[in-house]
Amino acid sequence: MNELSGNWNYPTDIRFGSGRIAELPDVCAELGIQRPLLVTDPGLAKLPLLETVVGNCQTCGLQMGVFSDIKPNPVASNVEQGLLALRDGAHDGVIAFGGGSAMDAGKTIAFMAPQTRPMWDFEDVGDNWKAAQTEGILPIVAVPTTAGTGSEVGRAGVIVNEDLHQKIVVFHPLMLPSIVLSDPELTVGLPAHITAATGMDALAHCLEAYCAPGYHPMADGIAVEGMRLVKNALPRACADGTDIEARAHMLIAASMGATAFQKGLGAIHALSHPVGALYDTHHGLTNAVFMPYVLAFNRPVIKERLQRLAAWLGLPGTGYTAVMDWVLNLRQQIGIPHTLVELGVDDQRLDQLAEMAPRDPTASGNPIPLNEQNSRELFQAALDGTLEI
Q1: What pLDDT is attached to residue 389?
Q2: Confidence band (pLDDT; 50, 70, 90) for 175?
Q3: In sequence order, what are the residues at sequence separation of 6 or more whose Cβ sits closer than 8 angstroms to the Cβ of residue 221?
Q4: Res. 12 pLDDT band, cuts 50 70 90
Q5: What is the mean pLDDT of the chain?
């Protein structure tokens, strides 16, 4: 395990390795944070782990507050309540501690601290981000406790607009955490089904980034290595949650996926976001369900890429068939449902879902352009379990 440690400045300052959570007080001091607001989810807030972390920070002189009123798919009111807690406590920095929900909410709270315009004005469209007030955006320390979203190395937060029943990507370059404390020991207690769902989210990020059109060899290389790490480590982490080497590889694979998808995402996310907004499903699990259907849909234009990917990953067989078989077998091995129906999704809102998917900001990265008709066909296939699209 001593070899699985390092300090990286790509795409931000990452302190990676077992036990590095102990450095949190020093990291806050390095950033000039004296009164951090730790943003986490309700489940983590109840665990002894958080009590220990907060206690250590307070012993070191930090005046820390904790905010945990966050839904699994964070909504605008969660951010608003977090801002009230931030101001009431006169906090001067944010520690985003947890999985994707805590990361997205924490980063957005830190970003919105000085803003006078509505949050939706900073949706990741065009150059909206340039309208932000940059003075007063608070420094962010990210501490991931799941290996999935990779939001610790991202410059955006995904927040549900409850009025529109739509997930909105709020973006600004200063939402990128200043320092990431990436400690695989914090993921050891993650249940197997959450390990599986979040791990498939990491895989979705790498796979979609790799398949996205455009020239970005750096992102492609990171994505491929991320998929190799997932291939080798995710089954191990699900089978034995104490396998710290597998946990370490999954944690960095998640950060790699979020780094790679600067190139783009695609239909997996464009379909998943509306389902999460309307049915409140787990994001990573929803991505996992959609993955093979989107692979089948994109097959005509990604065949050559998958030929190389199958070889690089050392899969039995060749090309599309090898990659599809691997994805299907991996999903079955770690207990991922095959259809949307198993997530509690029905066809009652199919028209609305089909209308929302092509408008999702991730849709533009899909190798085949999405429209309402083919989105509807993809949703129907995922409901029925049909891979012939």
Answers
A1: 63
A2: very high
A3: none
A4: very high
A5: 96
What kind of fold does domain 190-384 have according to CATH?
A: Dehydroquinate synthase-like, alpha domain (1.20.1090)
Q: Where in the chain is the domain with CATH 1.20.1090.10?
A: 190-384
> In 3D, which of 183, 192, 211 has the Cα closest to residue 297?
211
Where does the pLDDT of residue 45 fall: very low under 50, low under 70, confident under 90, or very high at 90 and above? very high
Q: Residue 18 above 70 pLDDT?
A: yes
> 208 pLDDT band (50/70/90 cuts)?
very high
Q: Long-range CB contacts (< 8 A, 24+ apart) of 308-312?
A: 309/210, 309/224, 309/227, 312/224, 312/228
Where are the CATH 3.40.50.1970 domain residues in the chain? 6-186
pLDDT digits (tens, 9 = 90+) for 176-194: 999 999 999 999 989 999 9
Amino acid letter, 147: A
| Per-residue pLDDT at 65 exceeds 90 | yes
Beta bridge partners of 143: 97
Range from 3-12, 72-81, 370-379 carrying the lowest mean pLDDT: 3-12
Architecture of the structural domain at 6-186: 3-Layer(aba) Sandwich (3.40)
What is the largest distance, in Å, between two alpha-carbon atoms of the chain?
Answer: 60
User: 3-state secondary structure string, the chain?
Assistant: CCCCCEEEECCCEEEECCCHHHHHHHHHHHCCCCCEEEECCHHHHCCHHHHHHHHHHHHCCCCCEEECCCCCCCEHHHHHHHHHHHHHCCCCEEEEEECHHHHHHHHHHHHHCCCCCCHHHHECCCCHHHHCCCCCCCCEEEEECCCCCCHHHCCEEEEEECCCCEEEEEECHHHCCCEEEECHHHHCCCCHHHHHHHHHHHHHHHHHHHHCCCCCHHHHHHHHHHHHHHHHHHHHHHHCCCCHHHHHHHHHHHHHHHHHCCCCCCHHHHHHHHHHHHHCCCHHHHHHHHHHHHHHHHHHHHHHHHHHHHHHHCCCCCHHHHHHHHHHHHHHHHCCCCCHHHHCCCCCCHHHHHHHHHHCCCHHHCCCCCCHHHHHHHHHHHHHCCCCC
